[in-house]
Write a structure and sequence with these properties.
It is built from 28 helices and 21 strands. The protein has 678 residues and is α/β, with parallel strands linked by helices. The relative contact order is 0.07.
Length: 678
């Protein structure tokens, strides 16, 4: 680089000094001798011409004049591009961010956001906010490294052991299970094969699976392997139905995941070949499983109840809340493109509380952190609910309008009291507000275009199964029927939340009924007082009281955001939808005592909504463990074991006690038997 000299003179005697020489000499300015040396006569300095270089150019003001600025092109051109293209980024998540790739010489040199989200409009002409821009995360910024990385698989690969099984003709045992060494998974060698061979192996494998489990012989094999009879019956003898299509995480782009569904439909051609005598109406493709049904990495209750995935609040709603409670949700890591909404919310004064089993990246964005024992998050929230109810801090209006806690429950059966059992000649109310009822014939017609239905479409047969329910009106002091249409602002009446009532049925008998709210209150009082919750969750009792107080102070302005975590033993924590009329079943009874997760009858969703005064809840979660899992959990959680044993002593089938305790403990004792201490 050219060495520029600075014009400086001391009474016309000081020669030109190079910038480098000036800085070099300035290092020693700490002493007077060094300062004097800086201004020595010219004979001690060699001139530029004497060194055989071009004569220096004197510049009076380097900010106004620079002789050679060609070097700046290095910095200007580092972001130059030949072309660019827009793509959807979905490497390991479902954000599907719209990004722009910039190319030079046919190679992606950088990736940037498109800044196009603010231009989007919906079907009604509403325009999106530019506040969603720039929408990109760290993974998207460096996606180019993944594309050109040396570890990228660029050719078909197959596990050596699997290829040996294919080459030997797909040998199977009598029950249909593959006769191959599956223990090599994770350790086996990978072989590179050609595309033609790879496609042939995939096709022959699919055909072999469909042939193996086709017809009555195939059904017998599946039953022998332990599949549920209802699942096998649902196949109707079609072997292709044993093939489950589902786009893995790297394939969740909107076009890619539906490509699997299209291929599932195409397998109807294979079904026709394997079942030539079947009618056209009986020919089917393979099963298409979504993420919720396949491994429930997201709450399956959403599509089961609404028919749509992830029906929840939009992430920008955080800044409209005064209290944001993140429960097992690592927002900063799992929602990186939307992490700024937490910061925006805090700038608006929102208080953030993080409840987690570990200290994770989102925790350092919180005002308050609750670190609890893994698998006890629901127990913690039940303790908070108990604190709210026992101190009278809950929102009565929200409980009445947005939950089923006012409904009456029969003490003798544990089921909700049906309106048809109370009122002679009762006919279910016509539902018009939230759903559209259709017959099977109407449902067979082509569906309406997306986003045009307006209401959830429900089979007419399901309406009779739902039925209508009953609450006890405080003003009239009598039972009143209520339907699904009468919720929220449409709810009329003044229901009692506590109490036991004698209700005369249409058959002339009288049964005792209690409100679901009173049953929940009793259960919480006897199992989730602050001290017990503290010991089960391994948290300070003040953490329970603090969250309850903050929720009570922010009625209608609190947002509960729950993630889906894994229990301590690694099994998937399954989220179940709340079904009207559901009873405290076997799985719910076990888990209620072991991890504080109650069944559908207790309706934690109602308690969660009551906490906030808004319907910002997620479905209650409880696992469906087998017996070995239950025993293992008891062994790993001595405090929970102690609680179970104590409750068994206090509430036996013969003695008194709450209905829910008796049902749950009877079931638990039956399942665990002698494993519980006497």
């Amino acid at each position: 680089m050219t060495e520029y000299r600075l014009e400086a003179s001391l009474h016309g005697a000081m020669p030109d000094l190079s910038r480098r020489e000036l800085l070099k000499r300035a290092v020693a300015l700490g002493s007077g001798a060094a300062l004097a040396e800086l201004f020595l006569p010219a004979q001690f300095l060699s001139s530029a011409s004497a060194q055989g270089v071009a004569q220096a150019i004197a510049i009076a003001n380097p900010l106004a004049q620079m002789p050679d600025r060609g070097w700046e092109r290095i910095y200007r051109d580092q972001f130059a591009e030949d072309d660019s293209f827009v793509f959807t980024c979905a490497p390991n998540d479902t954000h599907n961010c719209l990004l722009r790739a910039h190319t030079k010489n046919g190679v992606i040199v950088r990736i940037s956001p498109t800044y196009g989200y603010g231009k989007a409009r919906d079907l009604y002409g509403n325009q999106a906010s530019h506040r969603w821009d720039p929408r990109i995360c760290q993974k998207g910024l460096i996606l180019g490294r993944r594309i050109y990385g040396d570890r990228r698989v660029k050719a078909p690969m197959i596990r050596k052991g699997f290829k040996e099984w294919v080459d030997s003709g797909f040998p199977r045992r009598g029950d249909g299970t593959p006769r191959s060494d599956t223990s090599k998974r994770g350790y086996d060698e990978w072989l590179q094969i050609g595309w033609d061979e790879a496609l042939s192996i995939a096709a022959w494998t699919l055909r072999n699976v469909a042939e193996t489990y086709n017809g009555e012989d195939g059904a017998e094999k599946l039953l022998e392997q332990g599949y549920e009879p209802a699942m096998v019956e649902a196949m109707h003898g079609a072997g292709v139905q044993a093939i489950k299509m589902r786009g893995g995480m790297p394939l969740l782009g909107i076009g890619r995941v539906f490509g699997f569904y299209r291929f599932a439909n195409m397998l109807a051609l294979l079904d026709r070949k394997l079942r030539p005598d079947a009618s056209d109406d009986e020919i089917v493709g393979s099963r298409a499983f979504d993420n919720y049904a396949w491994h429930t990495d997201l709450p399956p209750g959403h599509p089961m109840v609404t028919g749509s995935q992830t029906v929840d609040f939009d992430l920008f709603a955080a800044e409209h809340a005064k209290l944001l409670v993140l429960i097992g949700m690592n927002w900063i890591c799992t929602k990186m493109p939307d992490g700024h909404w937490i910061g925006d919310a805090r700038l608006h004064g929102t208080r953030v509380v993080v409840i987690s089993a570990d200290y994770m990246p989102t925790a350092n964005k919180a005002d308050e952190i609750v670190i609890l024992r893994p698998g006890t998050d629901t127990a913690f929230l039940l303790g908070v609910a108990r604190e709210l109810i026992s101190k009278g801090m809950y929102d009565r209006e929200a409980v009445i309008q947005r939950t089923d806690l006012p409904l009456l429950v029969r003490v003798d059966t544990g089921e909700r009291l049906a309106a048809g059992d109370v009122f002679p000649g009762y006919r279910n109310a016509r539902l018009e507000n939230y759903v559209t009822l259709k017959t099977e014939e109407e449902l067979a017609a082509p569906p309406a275009p997306p986003f045009t239905a307006g209401k959830q479409v429900v089979p007419t047969e399901l309406r009779d199964e739902w039925g209508d329910y009953v609450f006890w009106d405080r003003e009239t002091d009598e039972p009143v029927a209520v339907s699904r249409d009468e919720v929220g602002a449409r709810f009329a009446g003044d229901p009692a939340l506590n109490g036991t009532f004698d209700v005369k049925l249409v058959d002339g008998t009288t049964v005792k009924a209690r409100t679901a709210f009173s049953l929940l209150s009793e259960y919480l009082d006897e199992n989730f007082d602050v001290q017990t919750t503290s010991e089960v969750c391994n948290v300070d009792p003040q953490a329970v009281r603090s969250l309850a107080r903050q929720l009570a102070e922010n009625k209608g302005n609190a947002l509960l955001a729950a993630g889906l975590a894994l229990p301590g033993d690694g099994t998937v924590d399954r989220r179940e939808p709340v079904r009207p009329g559901a009873r405290l079943d076997e799985a719910g009874a076990r888990e209620a005592l072991l991890q504080g997760r109650v069944g559908a009858l207790l309706e934690l969703r109602g308690a969660a909504a009551a906490l906030t005064g808004r319907d910002h809840h997620r479905e209650d979660a409880y696992a469906n463990p087998d017996e070995a899992h239950l025993v293992r959990q008891l062994e790993l959680a001595p405090r929970q074991r102690e609680v179970v044993v104590r409750r068994r002593e206090e509430h036996t089938a013969e003695a008194g006690g709450g209905l829910l305790q008796r049902v749950a403990l009877d079931e638990l004792v039956r399942v665990l038997g002698p494993r519980l201490p006497s």
